[in-house]
Design a protein that fits this description.
Radius of gyration: 25 Å
Order of helices and strands: HHHHHHHHHHHEEHEEEHEHHEEEHHHEE
Strand content: 5-15%
Strand order of the largest sheet: 2-1-9-3-4-5
Structural class: alpha+beta
Number of strands: 11
Shape: elongated
Number of helices: 18
Largest sheet: 6 strands, mixed
Length: 409
Amino acid sequence: MDFLIASAARALAAGDPLGALNLIALRGDAAALALGGIAMAQLGDFRRAKTLLRCAARGFDPKDALSRARCVVAEAEIALVSRELAWPEKALEAARAALQAHGDPANAAHARHLQARRQLLIGRLDEAERALAGLDPAGLAPASRAVHELIAAGIALRRLRMQPARAALARAELAAGHAGIPALTAEVESASRVLSTPAARLVARDEQRLLLLDDVEALLASDTLVVDACRHAVREAGVMVPLASRPVLFALARALAQAWPRPAPRETLIAQAFRTAYFDETHRARLRVEIGRLRAALRPVAGIVAARNGFALKPREGRRAVVLARPVDDAGREHGAILAFLADGEAWSSSALALALNTSQRTVQRALDELAATDKVQSRGQGRARRWMTPPVPGFTTTLLLPAGLAGR
């Protein structure tokens, strides 16, 4: 490796893409093109970065498996950052194996981190945890160690394990300080702010207040009957009844919990579950059917009793019922998971959102069109290049809206 290439590589490792480009921008050899691609990626020009990396991969000798594998890993990172989640996982795994076999453990660990970050992003927490388990953070460079701890913190946050999350973020902050890369330090600070940002809202008949993630963890660990409007489930003392695929039943459960300990009027239940202000005997009959289905679904955690004017939720003796709602309830609450993904500030395609949400692209597209009609999201580009974005809700975190193992995927 010549002096300019080595100096450019050191500049990129220190987070100085402009310094790297000053050294290799006028060169056209494969190594310079690869470093130029990484520099352009750090500057945010992902299209140019991918072009340079592909040219570099073609320029390396076919026998130079190490350099080609590094190009694959760099392109995989660009795909992750630009939310191209359909990028082939097998190519990244093959590159990681090649890097490990050819004596480049640092980049092999980076490839493993990319695999874990992708699994975390789409809610496959067990797979992300297994990917991290294959790495020893003590043997990593400070920057890689900070990334490792950020992923570990992200997994703990999704699972609402706040003590491990705080410990991982503290380790990430220490490693980022040793790395001395401003962008990495800013990422750690952004992740840490989630701990002190309201994540949900407790709604009871005579009470409404914002909750931090620590408060949510304590609430879900208590014996309170919680109708979770963030992940569409009913929870009590570690028992969960998922209702994400049964929206009518969940709407009824939420209305009953908000009215507890009093009965919820039939008119209110019909209006919230069936979305109509006009109803007749057919709606009353349908309400009885749906209440019967909800009673059967909630049998492990609560009962439902009929009253003169409606129905009442009946938690187990001595327990209360509350609703865990989004910090801000608005017209987009039905599509909270989509808004949570878009709140990271990145531009998402509808296909990537569908993959992350484990649903059909047509369903996601309909939801995006509804959100765009109410100015909740905006798009750029056309056709296959169309991307969707939205600014995050100021002052709130969307952690509880993202997919997790607890959500009954």
